Prior knowledge:
Blueprint: H1 3-13, H2 18-44, H3 52-66
Helix pairs in contact: 2-3
Amino acid sequence: MNIFYKSKKHCKDAKETYFQHMFVAIKISFNLLKGSLMALVHSLIPAFFEKGASRKIISLHNYLQDKKRVKDEN
């Protein structure tokens, strides 16, 4: 299957334009990076970001579920 067709279909399934989808993906990416850096700092200095990375993961999960980007597997 053509990569352009697959990309177009994916955006259509997400009910977003290409640029809307791009900005959502960038937002998620930066939030994942932030959570990752919090976890890294916490691993070195446990007093920092004691719950920050966990909260970021939960926040992203809730966002994805609210936007119907992930299906509840339960």
